[in-house]
Amino acid sequence: MGKKVILHIDMDAFFASIEQRDFPSYRGKPVIVGAKPGNRGVVSTASYEARKFGVHSAMPINEAVRRCPKGIFVTPRMDVYVHESHEIMRILQTFSPAIEQISVDEAFVDMTGSEKLFGTPVNAANLIKNKIFAERQLTASVGIAPNKFLAKIGSDYNKPNGITCTPFKKTDIEKWLAPMEVRRIWGVGQKSNSILEGMGILTIGNLQQLTLEFLQSKFGAQGVTLFYLCRGIDEREIETVYHAKSISREHTFNVDSSDRNEWEKMLFILSQDVSRRARHGNVKGKTIVLTYRKTDFSRYSRRITLQQPINIAKLIYEHACALLRQVKEQSIRLIGVGLTGFDEIVQTSLFENETDTKDWEFSEQAIDKITSRFGENIIVKGREIVTGKKNKVVNKRK
Ligand code: TTP
Ligand code: MG
After folding, report:
1. How far is the CA of 48 from the centre of ligand 1 (A)?
2. Is 85 exposed, middle or buried (0-12, 13-18, 19+ CB in 10 A)?
3. Which pLDDT score, from 0 to 100, does residue 9 have?
4. What's residue 385's pLDDT?
5. pLDDT in tens, 113-146
6. Which residues pair with 27 in a beta bridge?
7. 223-260 burial by CB neighbour count: b if 16+ within 10 A, else e?
8. 369 CA to middle of ligand 2, Å?
9. Residue 349 pLDDT level (bands cut at 50, 70, 90)
10. What are the residues whose beta carbons fall under 8 Å from the beta carbon of 164, sequence distance 6 or more?
């Protein structure tokens, strides 16, 4: 059986690069996107110029001011970033149908067997980077590997604007991974990392010395995963929308948010994204799931199951808002919405006015078509106009 060719694409300093693209006076300068200086919030991301001063994601914003007093501090424009994310995913879809988006600025693309179309994997990676740059004026880094785990390490290996092809042979892979820090392993959180550190396990090479039995006794199921990942063995498939059992999107607020209006606004953006992906995958779901994380990081979800499966953003949003009204929390850290229950089609309609639903479905499909031709910002929906954030971008496009 031939090896797979998996690419992991990760945009460089994503939010900051968009700001530098849209505001030319920021280019070549330290740009820090995040909470307003003077507040207790954190840095979302920093341009590579700002990183030279030691500024990085999740750092308290006031520490960033101390380290980089001449930095340009910018408040995030989430709706612009989410739309940019869609544009990039749309470009990736022109290279392969097997795409798995894993965050706002990164995705796996399965390029196995595409050599006739796009040449060698390195050539394909260059084509992808060039297309993103030509259409969106943004740079990305790409990892090329036989699996998802190695591809993700690869994209981070030579950032920004780099391409890294990891080894493909077992012994070379183990050697390549050995000197890397354990925290590079995707899924090793701070807790496991500090346990491992306490045991003197600092590198992936150290981890490779431990037996399966030992790792399992220390970490349970995660120990088994660690045993394989530290050797670069990862059998996970690309989970496209077509194979997924659910489609969801979450957002972590920079600081705990107690503003219900902000929660709803974020749900609106997230619902549109979930809806678009469901329409793209030609699926409808009966269950809408609202997820939130309390300020102590504990995670909760509420769900509603309809009689009729849907994929319309307006309905996903309305049901998510109804679920949100049942949440009595004062302040939350994360909010998300998901659609699931794809395969059970029920004949009866929940909606009194079936035509109304069909109209929305039709209108949202039309929006998909228009945006895929002219770009995301050509159309703004009610809620975005009300919030007023989009107007500048829309005018620019007109
Ligand atoms: P990343 O891909 O982790 O970071 P990045 O794209 O800014 O920089 P690079 O990949 O070149 O290292 O995250 C993507 C975006 O997600 C980032 O631009 C801002 C946002 N983000 C946060 O808001 N908070 C965080 O703690 C992190 C890590 C990212
Ligand atoms: Mg990135």
Report:
1. 12
2. buried
3. 98
4. 33
5. 999 999 999 999 999 999 999 999 999 999 999 9
6. none
7. bebbbebbebbbeeebbbbeebeebbbbbebbebbeee
8. 28
9. very low
10. 141, 142, 143, 144, 154, 155, 157, 158
- Supply the DSSP symbol for 140: E
- Compute how many other C-beta atoms are within 10 angstroms of the C-beta atom of residue 51: 18
The alpha carbon torsion through 385, 387, 388, 391 (nearest 10 deg) reads: -50
Q: Mind listing the pLDDT tens digit for each residue in 33-68?
A: 999 999 888 999 999 999 999 999 999 999 999 999
Residue range 6-22: average pLDDT? 98
Instruction: Name the residue with tokens 């939010």.
Output: 15
Q: Closest-lying ligand to the alpha carbon of 13?
A: 1
CA distance 128 to 115: 14
> Quick one: tokens of 217?
């006794």
- Label residue 269 exposed, middle or buried (CB < 10 Å: 0-12, 13-18, 19+): buried
Please name the residue that has the structure tokens 């220390």. 218
CA nearest neighbour of 140 among 201, 194, 92: 92
Read off the tokens for 131: 């297309």
Q: Residue for token digits 């909010």? A: 335
Q: What residues sit around ligand 2, an ion, with C-beta below 5 angstroms?
A: 10-11, 14, 105
Q: How far is the CA of 59 from the centre of ligand 1 (A)?
A: 12
Task: State the pTM of this model.
Answer: 0.70
Beta strands in the chain (DSSP E): 6-11, 31-34, 43-46, 72-74, 99-103, 106-110, 140-145, 163-165, 246-257, 285-294, 299-310, 332-340
Q: Of all atoms in ligand 1, which is nearest to the CA of residue 34?
A: 23
Query: Helix, strand, or coil here: 336?
Result: strand
pLDDT in the model for residue 367: 58
pLDDT, tens digit (0-9, with 9 covering 90-100), for 253-264:
888 899 999 999
